[in-house]
Amino acid sequence: MDRDWKRFTDFLVEQGIDKVAHTTKTYLGHLIGLYRLMEAKGCNEELCRAGMFHSIYGTQQFQGFKLPLERRPEVRSLIGTRAEKLAYLNCAMQRETFDAIVCSDREPYVFTDRLTGEAVHLSRQDFDDLCRIHLYDWLEQVPRSQKWDYRRAAYRSMAERLGPPARDLYDEVFAAQMTPSSAG
Fold first, then answer.
1. How far apart are CA 66 and CA 166, in angstroms?
2. Which residues contact 90 (CB under 8 A, 6 or more apart)?
3. Could you give the 3-state DSSP secondary structure of residue 112?
4. Most buried among 23, 49, 118, 172, using CB within 10 Å?
5. Tens digits of residue pLDDT in 110-120
């Protein structure tokens, strides 16, 4: 567990995140669940921190809480420069443009920042880490949300791209999906 864990959770509670609903639990519960999942899958502290703050500024899908962008320096000083950058990119990504890159599996890694309209150019490492955060975020919550078909091809492509640990987790999570023949 990260030595600064309590600082992170205290900050999030101060924002009222523990009172925001998110996929049948609280938003804080989801963030903690994602951090723990990423830690269990061998992600380093920097990635776990980025995962825990992956939607702090709101995302294209989740608008239940949004810290103002003017507070980015505060978040950066709390979780670190690269972790905050990855968290911001996860919030700002225009998912359609991100999915197009994931599914094409070709460089360059460029997607649109939905908040600024600008093109974001990523290194292979940053792109892979952003895929990891984005995929694990979805795998942590899809059993509760029951939105099994939401961007499924893109998530599968991320799992394939990231290799056996991610692919195995994807397969494990989606094996729990109730099919029409087994629901009856």
1. 28
2. 50, 54, 55, 59, 130, 133, 134, 137
3. strand
4. 49
5. 999 999 999 99
